[in-house]
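Q: Structure tokens for this one, please.
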Amino acid sequence: MDKLLDDIKNNLIAGRVDRQDEGPDGTMEGQPGMRELVQEAIEMGVPPSTIMAQCLNPGMEEVGRLYENGEYLTPDMLAAAESVNTAMTLLEPLLLENNITNNGKFVMATVEGDLHDIGKNIVVTLLRGSGYDIQDLGTSVQADQIVSAIKESQANFLGLSALLTSTMGKMKEVIDKLKEENLREKVKVFTGGAPLTEEYARKIGADFFCEDAFDALNKLNSLKKKNKNMGDSNRSDWLATRQKNSPSPIEKMLSRIFLLFEDIIKVSLFHCQRCGECILSHTAFVCSQRCPE
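A: Here is the predicted structure, written as tokens:
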């Protein structure tokens, strides 16, 4: 079994999803990848917690080390993240069955009119790996659909994403509809996206503004520690909560993936020179103008 666990970790580091992947040196096609190896471990009865503790966590730590040393580039990190997502897709049913996923139910959505989902998807992957039951509604989701999902799932948390200044207002529409349905006090609302600020989150009545994926997880952990009952504290206290603990290597890496991928898109699509003088410097993928330089 030890060899199997080592193989899972090594394939994560190599960023191999399945046997069709050639691997970093182009010689590994036909060999079992993450999908086949994790499935084999499951069939052998290896506990999901063991796979996560002995394979996924140390594997991601090694990927983070390789990136910090300049041995891995952004594509290598993206491949590793995809292999982790493949493993978590297989492990999630077992985590639910074994009641490991018990940190709460989370509905995630990009609001109506906005089709951006890279950041949201990273948050979804991270929270699933941290034991949250995630219902991902996708992109451009209407307020009524989001409220219906909260009502049907009885979720504890709601995550709203927007990367367009023109769609930010849809977040307030969702929160207002939650109030109309008498659901607002039953769910904690997390907001995120490049054009958002903490001040805007407070203005629309959200509980949290999250700068990135690991900031969202830190706020959840802090909230859980501060009030296990969730319903007894004032929302302004939740909004002011800060988690001082350092993020884990996997949280750091997933956040870096988002920021680096965003930077690549800015340069390739908009010829960004990173001068900081135009709207592109703070609205992620939505700028249509060229850099003034």
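A few notes: The longest helix spans residues 74-97. DSSP finds eleven helices and five strands in the chain.
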